[in-house]
Amino acid sequence: MYMPSKILLKNAQILLENHKCETCPDLLAVFELYRVASNAEHQKIWYEKNIEKCAEYDKHHYPTSGYHQSNKNSSKKYY
Q1: How many alpha carbons lie under 13 Å from residue 24 in its C-beta half-sphere?
Q2: Angle 39-49/51-61 helices, nearest 10 degrees?
Q3: What pLDDT was estimated at residue 33?
């Protein structure tokens, strides 16, 4: 049965209630709510799953603040 994706819940229920065909008694369908996560929710879930990888990446690429301080001091010397 065709049902548009943007159909109102009330109209979808009416379509399903009024549906009649010969093959339906032989079939069983279970419907569950499908919810699409927003971009922010998707990023939060990804971050929670990969928090250890992110920490390891940061630790590897930004080992200490000493480098930043020495680089800052050397750049001031030539400024």
Answers
A1: 9
A2: 70
A3: 76
